[in-house]
Batch of 3 targets.
Target 1
Amino acid sequence: MFSKGSLHIATVAGIPVKLHWTFALLVGLVTYTSFSSGYGWLGSLYFGLFILTLFFCVVLHELGHALAARYYNVPTQDIILSPIGGVARLKHLPEKAFHELIIAIAGPMVNVIIAFVLFGVLWFKQQSPLEISGDGFEAFMSFYNFMPLIFFMNIFLVAFNMIPAFPMDGGRVLRALLAMRLGKLKATLIATRIGQLLAIGFVGLGIYMGHLVLPFIGVFIFLVAGSEYKSVRFQESIRGRRVLDIYRDQYSLLFEYAPVRQAIDRMNRSMERDFLVTNQLGHVSGVLREEAIKEAIRQNDTDAVIAGYKSQNYEAIDVSYPLEYIIQLFQKKDYSILPVYQNGEFVGVIDRHSFGSIM
Ligand SMILES: [Zn+2]
């Protein structure tokens, strides 16, 4: 149930919906606010119901992104809910700018639809959405206010998400529009800088207003925008490149019946961290990972033969393979080092540190 700090609560349309552990803070805040306002458990219940409905709208918003992404063959890994909102984690970015535009807009569109439906129901009930009785927290204590409040929260979700602060939805829309003219890299750079500027504004405004959540969101946007730009820059830099461009023809081969000590020796004298292991015939028979070497050091077992520490987690790759594919392969299969072949002949290695050199 718990994986990497989040709790799997449901699966909708094949997409896991998870609660981030910090969500517990929200439950605490709801209870605290209710009690400090003098409404006790009943207040918690009312306020909790409101927050729950609000997050239900957030899940629908994220499903809007996820289903639009699915339409363009981009799978969604999961939807994670945290106190500051939800995020649909797409497995990769859509290639076409127009697809990103539609995926980014699909989330807020869901809230527009919810707001329209609520407006229709309120109109039918002859209740004005502007009619909210009570001040501050008191407003949440009346069931009469429930629908108008949810209506306003959906309008707020649309307005807030459409602020062009990349990586928020509005920022993604901006990036997609810019990318149609300027290309993805330049568009991302401009959208990132605008996003970071607005993020600094959020922090400033939050501190000025004595608001806790806004500076937090600001810092979050600032950091995520920066890392997403780096990832796009990385993607662009490997586009069209192949194993041939980055494989190493300088490497050590370790005999499987040599002691682990030999690997430590090589580590100290070179930049090599992971090694290919060979058998008596000189053929590659496994890999010795940095983690395994460290384990041998911890166990005081460096005189043991490498065969006892080697792993079979590797496969042969060809110089013609595209780097995009190889990077995915390393991530998916947790490879450390792979032998590289050209026309069936062993010519060198590629390891998990090889990609850093591209930057
Ligand atoms: Zn969104």
Note: Residues 40-71 form the longest helix (32 residues).
Target 2
Amino acid sequence: MMLASLLTLFTGALASHVVSSAFTVAPMPHTISFEAAATTPTVFTTADAALRQLAGLKPGETLLLHGAAGGVGLAAVQVAHAAGATVVATAGSPSKRSLLRSLGVKVAVSSRDTSFVTDLAWAGGVDVVLNSLTSPGMVGGSLSVLRRGGRFVEIGKRDIWAPAAAAAERPDVAYNLLAIDFMPPEVLQQLLYRLSADLASGTVAPIRAAVHDMTSVAAAMRQMAQARHVGKVVVSAHARSPAAFSSSGSSGAAASFGSANGSMFIIGGTGALGQLVSGWLAGNQAQHLILASRTGKLPASAADMGLTNPQHPLFNSMVSITACDASVASDVTGVISRLAVSSSSSSSSRVSFSGLQHQPQLASLLHAGGVLADAAFASQSARGVRQVTAPKAVALQLLMQHLSTQPTSNSVLFSSMAALLGSAGQTNYGAANAALDAEAQMLQAAGVAVSSVQFSAWAGAGMAAATASKVEAMGIGALSPAAGLAALEAVVRAGSMLRWGYDCYQVNAWRRCE
Ligand SMILES: NC(=O)c1ccc[n+]([C@@H]2O[C@H](COP(=O)([O-])OP(=O)(O)OC[C@H]3O[C@@H](n4cnc5c(N)ncnc54)[C@H](OP(=O)(O)O)[C@@H]3O)[C@@H](O)[C@H]2O)c1
């Protein structure tokens, strides 16, 4: 007998055994887990039916997606992008809006009021609206921003407008009510088979989820009722309960970087150490974090970094993810000047492409941006040196031009032990970090509060992960995240003296020699 894994969609599925209609099952691609697959049937069949079948969303059109950080919203973002459409969205919190921007949503604004109407009307309107919100003015406002001949799909179930009311308001648009629970089985089956094919081909991917095990069904239900999650709540027969992310360091870490209420600008904030440090700072009362990288996107490996997990400290901070090449003057000027504007003006447009709305004044800079271009000494090139130096010393020069007029209470630069001891294949990287250190030392002498820390290789992810064995061979163990963060805090607490990384180096090297 062949056993197949299936995607299915019906009520009562939290039982040990179920009997399902053949119409409500489709093959589950073997490339995804059961937990990941469980996030998909309801939301993707709804998004597909709404956008492809009912609205006929076309390439180049614009979709207004309300409550976009919900399950259907996250699926609809993917379906719309696959159709070649542009997505503008509403969501209830700054962290949800940051998440949506990181997923390629062009504009993400608040779903708590109707201020989106003015902005979208000014921008020329939208072609399709997908709505599930019932707050006052939402439907009327959304109908008003639809272009002539637009399509409105309502997936809400309570307090929804009757078709006649919508027709009275906008006779020129198609108003559709959608409930997949009332769909003919054969249509549902088609949608499930298309989902199965799209998942297998990678056209769409499972959405984010908080996964609970069978012993915490009550907690899963409570989480869903409180609507604090992003994406889906999944109950798994295999998973352990979601672990609460713990933060190391003392509760005053953010304060020792300056004001816990100010903005912390983290270059390379989407990288391995940037993510770790951001979570740690958020867990230690940092309220406003700006994570910058050249792409301005979370790497796929970052999953959601905790932005969607209510138990993660980052969930409660205001996080902006922004594109900024720290070695390009206009990028650095753009971010820092926008930051100055957003901190001094609370009345700026709610529609922002920058992701830097309503961030308070800059308090601290953490520079954890960097790239590698390793090569044996004989193969080192000027190009490689330029590549590796750009996010280090070049970036620091640009940053400091601004920071002299907008001083931070503390700036920390992530340098490397390669500058102190050298590292095989990394002469360019060692030199780039040495240049960073030297520049920081000059700034120190000029009275600027900046520390350059020569970290040894951190354990786990990060740019040193691939070379961990080389470092190990030198007798230096990897720096655990807890030890690295403790060293970082010690440097900041000690004041603004340039440190040559002995804290971290000794933590590892000498302990092994004892
Ligand atoms: N990991 C370690 O064990 C270790 C040890 C010692 C020192 N360090 C230092 O710590 C820092 C972070 O390391 P990591 O392991 O977190 O590296 P990572 O995971 O590779 O992250 C590097 C980050 O820097 C960003 N970046 C690169 N060039 C940039 C630029 N010109 N402007 C803005 N952002 C830029 C990258 O994003 P984009 O590519 O999207 O721009 C990425 O977000 C690096 O400076 C590294 O030298 C790391």
Note: The first helix runs from residue 34 to 38.
Target 3
Amino acid sequence: MRIAIVGSGQLAQMLALAGLPMGIEFSFIVDKPDADIRCIEGLGKIVHSHKATSPEALYQALGMPDCITVEKEQLDVSLLESLAQFCPVRPNIEAVRTCQNRQREKLLLESLGIPSSPHFFLASKGDAQAAADAVTYPVVLKSCEEGYDGKNQFIVHTAQELLSIVSQEDITPCIAEQWLNFDKEVSIVGARATDGSMSFYSLAENIHHKGILTRSIAPAKALSAQQSQTAENYLSQIMEKLDYVGVMAVECFLLGEELLVNELAPRVHNSGHWTQLGARTCQFENHIRAIAGLKLGSSENIGVAGMLNLIGTKQAPLELADKLSSVHWYRKSPRPGRKLGHINFVGKDWAEVNKRMDNYLGLVKALSESR
Ligand SMILES: Nc1ncnc2c1ncn2[C@@H]1O[C@H](COP(=O)(O)OP(=O)(O)O)[C@@H](O)[C@H]1O
Ligand SMILES: [Mg+2]
């Protein structure tokens, strides 16, 4: 069996690394001329897609895959549409289209009665005054597409500020979303197979810095069984509605007892990297199993797991990671704010795992100060 993945980043890399031991071969579609392909070198054929190439020629160049999947939602869906005549695209194109646009995501959630942060949709700059009058401040302006790791987002405190940002920045269509003083950010990752069966990982608690995920720990501490069940219900309703196949993640804000959805990811997710060490079957293998038409593997936890992102560092001192952790380095070129790798930790309890993650960061800091 061969699977083609759209994208060339670390998620594509880890999907292939999970599927290769299952005898699956991979090829990769690079849809951006300037994309960094170092993550996927050596893992399968790399094919650059050009507008001039016919879909047949592209499909042939990919080695006639049995299935096509994605490692990201920000892509031109017409590429997927042109390939869908040859083999299944999983998750399906409509699911990718929905999740690549914040307003479409909000409409899907509303249709299912799933709560998310209140927002006002601005189709164009002309909607700025109506938005400025309607919202409760502070709000965060988020472009509907092309945002990740907090990019294309502006926190605004007054109507005047909102009007000036919308007039100056190329941000519409966008949403003006109420800023929430949440207690915690949590996420749920789950998978749905071709026969409709589903499997869910424990919720992870996620810590962000400047809009970028820095740390996850799972199972999230002090969640009630009711809250975990609610998150599973949200994800299961969303996947069923979309007739979804593969792994999906839902980011949520926890406010008191209430769980509000922040955003959806139609793919494996950074807040699920802990599953590589902390669950019986990791999210990457479960995505491959799902899209290959196989049974899902167990998503049961093995102890408490933590994940520390290695961000924007030249070369993180990986040798400082303790012996019960496992290191992933993606081979990307360093850049401020860029995710270059992660370390997974597994231990007996929450305090121990957090302490070991703090310990690693402390050693890195001490090393950099001594240089
Ligand atoms: N409405 C909000 N209220 C409070 N914090 C928010 C809100 N929206 C986003 N954030 C913060 O910014 C981070 C990134 O925003 P998000 O919408 O998840 O975009 P991205 O696609 O960049 O991950 C969130 O994880 C959260 O920490
Ligand atoms: Mg997010």
Note: The chain has a mean pLDDT of 96.
